């Protein structure tokens, strides 16, 4: 991801490294800001690696995979760019497209067939992907700490560094829960945070809501029952230069809330299978004007109703409740949706 940016010398009408042939969605940025912007897009895994970066009229055109996920403030444009020389993929070596996820320099697969799992691991390591570790899911996410077991197929360990929208997260996949699939959703919430807000993440993990909130100038508190996750949260606050604005609390949020009554301007409740059990605590944390980001998993026939009714019941007559956004995050299972309610509470 760190290759491909032109240095600004030479003919500005030339594409970076090849002929401009295919019109694609790009971020248009002045050359002087090109490298910083390219790094931001690379960290968010938004660069379309199959195309070259083009230069023209004093600007760079950086091809992107998902225009809707491009951070606010960056200019989108359609521009003709050249195709990058093709790299060897795991599919080339296998003869079929394997299903996998990447977190940092680790590839995750979910294969029941041991022979197929080993074949995918070999193909990943021998391909041009910049990874050396391959893990196969050996259990479901389980327990209060939301962790799963892994089978190590290649590499030496389960710790990695994941980069997302300009933030860096050190984590151990065998010790904490983390989903790269929620990057766009985390960014959607983060973009709503304003400088000076007080943000409380009730189930914080290694900090993917807490860290970007602090980087936007908020005072952020993260709580989690997983002690290893809290250790990583503190380390990630240091890595991202926001340790002075982050407080990490190990333990049950229902106990930690005693010290933060009427405190929060914004609350994140990303525990979709059982967030309703913590609504009384969320109400206790909420200040006079507070937004709650409430995550839920419900049947597709009524994905938002149960959560909205639970929030209104918990708020009672203490708050006026306004649902500002009903947002579908992703399909979770057949006929089940992972959704988020952005709800404003006004005392």
Automatic annotation (TrEMBL):
One example of a Gene Ontology biological process annotation: tRNA methylation
One term of GO molecular function: methyltransferase activity
Region (Disordered): 1-24
Keywords: Cytoplasm, Methyltransferase, S-adenosyl-L-methionine, Transferase, tRNA processing
Residue ranges annotated for the SAM-dependent methyltransferase TRM5/TYW2-type domain, each copy included: 100-347
InterPro entries recorded: MeTrfase_TRM5/TYW2, SAM-dependent_MTases_sf, TRM5-TYW2-like_MTfase, TRM5/TYW2-like_N, Trm5a/b_N
A matching Pfam family: TRM5-TYW2_MTfase
Signal peptide per UniProt: none
CDD domains for this protein: AdoMet_MTases
Name of the protein in question: Class I SAM-dependent methyltransferase
Organism: Saliphagus infecundisoli
